[in-house]
């Protein structure tokens, strides 16, 4: 598995497996176990997903040494603030059945995320967290926390796919030594993603699917990806993206698909902010 090196020297797989919206614990444990069988070692979960325990069970039952895994979780809005964040991280460690988490992110830029981040910095210094970062931080709030935190975020996980490529945001992150990570690399099928003619035609040259071309495009831009699927065949397909490379011509064609806006929500929209902050009460 190819890796990227975070600003503190920690190596992170450039391809991982995401478990968003797999709330049934039995199903989540099953699919994570299958992903591990396929070869995935980076697993991305979150407190808000309600499936940390299932991820912990699958990792433990795999029999593979813990140090071979890269586990990510995220502190939810309702757990924001220094003391509450510490308690929630302790609970995440318990549910994940591990002595440390490889990466912990502030899930959303709302509530007392500065207090949350200070708690994460403390756990990082104590070795309970190997790397820290943020998620869904747009450039304005990202720059703010990067400028005023003791430890600059090592990762920022944001919506990134061919229709919203985050090129400017990636450049800003790079100034602070922060690695961009994609959530929703398939845009959850929006914009008729899997039937996109540009991606299909490029894929035909290599005998690859639309999904494989989309993932390959992102990793060639040094974007970490965590595609989610509950089908083992697609897990295998998503894993098989290292045996080919896109040409400059391919990259230029895909680059033109960028609409430079979210297909899901905007943190600049008052109704979206009201909805998300309401989830944190």
From TrEMBL:
Keyword annotations for this protein, in alphabetical order, are: NADP, Oxidoreductase
Q: Which residues are annotated as active site?
A: 49 (proton donor)
**Quick one: which residues bind substrate?**
107
Q: Where is this site: Lowers pKa of active site Tyr?
A: 74
PROSITE patterns according to UniProt: ALDOKETO_REDUCTASE_1, ALDOKETO_REDUCTASE_2, ALDOKETO_REDUCTASE_3
Q: Name one Pfam family in it.
A: Aldo_ket_red
Q: Which family does it belong to?
A: Belongs to the aldo/keto reductase family.
Protein name (record): 2,5-diketo-D-gluconic acid reductase
């Amino acid at each position: 598995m190819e890796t990227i090196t975070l600003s503190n020297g920690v190596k992170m797989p450039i391809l991982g497996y995401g478990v968003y919206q797999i709330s049934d614990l039995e199903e989540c444990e099953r699919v994570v176990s299958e992903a591990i069988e396929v070869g995935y070692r980076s697993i991305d979960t979150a407190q808000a997903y309600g499936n940390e325990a299932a991820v912990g069970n699958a990792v433990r039952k795999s029999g593979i040494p813990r140090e071979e895994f890269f586990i990510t979780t995220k502190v939810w809005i309702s757990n924001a603030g220094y003391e509450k964040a510490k308690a929630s991280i302790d609970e995440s460690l318990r549910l994940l059945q591990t002595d440390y988490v490889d990466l912990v992110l502030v899930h959303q830029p709302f509530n007392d995320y500065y207090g949350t981040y200070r708690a994460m910095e403390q756990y990082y210094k104590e070795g309970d967290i190997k790397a820290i970062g943020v998620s869904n931080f747009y450039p304005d709030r990202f720059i703010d926390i990067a400028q005023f935190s003791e430890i600059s975020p090592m990762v920022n996980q944001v919506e990134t796919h061919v229709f919203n490529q985050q090129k400017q945001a990636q450049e800003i992150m790079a100034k602070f030594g922060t690695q961009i990570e994609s959530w929703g690399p398939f845009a959850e099928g929006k914009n008729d993603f899997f039937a996109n003619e540009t991606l299909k035609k490029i894929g035909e040259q290599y005998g690859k699917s639309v999904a494989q071309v989309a993932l390959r495009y992102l990793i060639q831009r040094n974007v970490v990806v965590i595609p989610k699927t509950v089908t083992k065949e697609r897990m295998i397909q998503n894993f098989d993206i290292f045996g080919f490379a896109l040409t400059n011509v391919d990259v230029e064609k895909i680059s033109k698909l960028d609409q430079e806006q979210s297909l899901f929500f905007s943190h600049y929209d008052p109704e979206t902010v009201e909805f998300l902050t309401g989830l944190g009460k």
